[in-house]
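Lab channel / #folding
Pinned by the channel admin:
"Please post every new chain as: sequence first, then the structure tokens as a reply. Keep commentary short and put observations after the output so the thread stays searchable."

First post following the new format, from NK:
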Amino acid sequence: MTILNLHPLVLDKELAVVLGLNEALILQLVHYWIEINKKNNRNFHEGRYWTYNTIDEWHEEFPFWSNSTIKRTFKRLRDMNLIIVDNFNVYQMDRTLWYTINYEELEKMIKDEKNNSATDATLDKNDAMIGSKGDDNDIQNEPMERTNMNSPLPEITTKTSTEISNQSIYHEKSLKDDRGIDGRNPSYEDFQERYKKVIKNCELYAIDEKYQVAADHAIKLLLLDIKIAKE
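Reply from TO:
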């Protein structure tokens, strides 16, 4: 048996870009079985055609995934309101789930993605035009928001990370040592509370680990500078 004789899974590239690879594969297969049922005029309920399978049966379709991966992918599709799940089994003891696709929501999602892509392409084109023509005055007169948006992030090296860390430690120590007669330092305590709230909202765990420490110190340094400026 050659690979060309095998039954391949169908993947729509546009769908994969919008939804993700796993979601696109499952949605494509659900659509395939819905179309089969539509041609045979079966499994029609509540104005839609449906297909049904257990997780083990879906695993037979996707043997390269675990059952938990299949469950998570279906859950993400349900959370996106792209897959509708119900139960139309004759026997109540039968817990096999039935699936259909919310084609209206899918069409809307694809349309939004195309609009976003067109907008991004227009912005890229405008950026290219700004960079390819005009003199230095044109660049200097460019709106601040655009300039900042397109500025590359500085490379975080061991040297720059250490510099940021040393600065934040020095400023924090200065603020911390400024105690009153009673030994308390309300100013520093207030700073610590603000710092903890900002760090919690920043979700630093989501960025590359090698940037986390530098980002933490940079945020602390910024808050210290703001506090000093206000005082």
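NK: The longest helix spans residues 103-132.
TO: also worth noting, The first strand starts at residue 44 and ends at 45.
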